[in-house]
Amino acid sequence: MKQGRKKSILPYIPGYDNNAVLKLVFFISGAYIMLAISWAVVMMVDKTDQNFNMYFLPAIALPQLHNFTAHWWTPLTYGLLHYPNSFMELLSNMLWLYCFGSVTQMLVGKREVVPLYVYSMLAGAAFYYGAQLLPPEFAKCPPYLLGPRAAIMGMCVAAVTISPKYRFYLTETFSIPMMVVAGIFVVLTIMSSGYYFPIILLIAGGGLTGFLYIRLLRAGYRPGRWMYTVSNWLQNSVTPNAAKVAARPTSAQREMRKSRQERVDELLDKINQKGYKSLSQEERDFLSNAGKN
Questions:
Q1: Which of 48, 93, 163, 277 is 20 to 30 A from 207 via CA?
Q2: What is the mean pLDDT of residues 77-97?
Q3: Which has the minimum average pLDDT: 4-13, 35-44, 51-60?
Q4: How far apart are CA 243 and CA 237, in angstroms?
Q5: Strands, DSSP E only, in the chain?
Q6: Which residues contact 124 (CB under 8 A, 6 or more apart)?
Q7: What is the rounded distance in angstroms from the CA atom of residue 117 to the CA atom of residue 206?
Q8: Alpha carbon of 62 to those of 22, 129, 282: distances in Å?
Q9: Which of 213, 211, 208 lies closest to 224 in space, CA to CA?
């Protein structure tokens, strides 16, 4: 009697060292804890959050357009933080991030996760401010905005773009199409926007970035490579010379990497055409191992 292979929610869940999504979740959760402690201290001292909203919030949240020049760095911070009294929102967002981020990481590699998140966050901020240039009835928005809506939407659209036929297996026989999960996420995200047009455009900007990022990857470009180039340069600047030479790839290693990338591209084409389920176990193992690097 032929036995079916046991399915899991995600075919491959790498350990912490090789899991950029998990590191991102931990970083955002840690930032929330630090901000919540600051808010609690202010509340205990002042019995109100007025000073927190006056001094802390403007330094980390997206302000309205007329206040942007005084807080120009906030497009780099707003998507990494949550309001300090919104633990359930944090929990929900981290579950969505890990859901879509893990699929993206498994299929295109861990090195694309952080750049995709950052680009989606920045594009969302740009769309947010662009919407505020519209007539007043469309430009209305909150004084400050926190949360990773744009970045998670970018991750969601990226996962759908890579493999629209992907399914989440909850048991051996029961699975949910990713398109359904993504549809639920989009509806809930729009509902949580308060129907402010700038926030809806912020979400759309993040999603568009996720789509374009994957299209660039498929075309052979690496939009996030510069981030790791800078990171490696900083790391190598304090690395002993002997270690640098030992870490330099040989011509044979470069050829092997090129061959491996070509195989990954072939498997991604197969997923786009027939879905993830069409891969053999050997192909899934190969794709999972490639995602570690």
A1: 277
A2: 95
A3: 4-13
A4: 11
A5: 62-63, 144-145, 167-169, 175-177
A6: 79, 149, 150, 151, 153, 154, 202, 203, 205, 206, 209
A7: 9
A8: 25, 9, 46
A9: 213
| Pairwise CA distance, residues 126 & 202, whole Å | 8
81 in Cβ contact with 32 (< 8 Å) = yes
Q: Which amino acid is at 74?
A: T
* pLDDT tens, position by position, 102-137: 999 988 888 999 999 999 999 999 999 999 999 999
Please write the tens of the pLDDT for every residue from 57-84: 999 999 999 999 999 999 999 999 999 9
Tallying the residues shown for the chain, one arrives at 293
Say if CB 279 and CB 264 are below 8 A apart. no
The answer to whether the beta carbons of residues 20 and 108 sit under 8 Å apart is no
As a whole number, mean pLDDT of residues 16-26 equals: 89
CA 59 – CA 41 distance, rounded (Å): 17
pTM: 0.79
**Rg of the chain (C-alpha set):** 21
